[in-house]
Write a structure and sequence with these properties.
globular, about 35% strand
Length: about 130
């Protein structure tokens, strides 16, 4: 069995540090990072604050999700009526005990539709969703 010397171990560690440090700093990113999905490969959802969304229009590209940020309310208690489900469909919120997922809207085709959300307390939020081609 060959046992490497401390000097050899140090050289390997230095080599690994030099080759992986640039990757680690790129992965950290910057809060002001303005790269788009075409360069990063990741397309995040459009986040909508439901508390401020009543009467607004949400613009979203086809293929992206709309995350409905419902704040501290029960994510599973929200329902929706979508006027044109060929444009978007409602995705119910989930709480499996270990993690929660906000309710959302999944895009299916370009177009516009009205969405009426009902909160667990019965209050209504109405918004319009415009889905555009990518």
């Amino acid at each position: 069995m060959i046992i490497p010397s401390p000097r050899a171990i140090g050289r390997v560690a230095a080599l690994l540090l030099v080759t992986t440090l640039p990757l680690a700093t790129v992965a950290c990113g910057d809060e002001d990072d303005t790269s788009d999905a075409s360069t990063s490969g990741i397309v995040g959802p459009v986040v909508v604050d439901v508390a401020a969304a009543n009467g607004t229009t949400v613009d979203v590209a086809l293929g992206r999700m709309v995350d409905l940020d419902v704040g501290a309310t029960d994510v599973t208690g929200w329902t929706a009526v979508v006027a044109d489900e060929e444009v978007v469909t409602f995705v119910a919120g989930r709480d499996d005990g270990g993690s929660t997922s906000d309710p959302g809207l999944e895009t299916h085709s370009a177009g516009s539709t009205d969405v009426t959300l009902t909160a667990p307390d019965g209050s209504i939020v109405e918004l319009r969703v415009d889905v555009t081609e990518k």
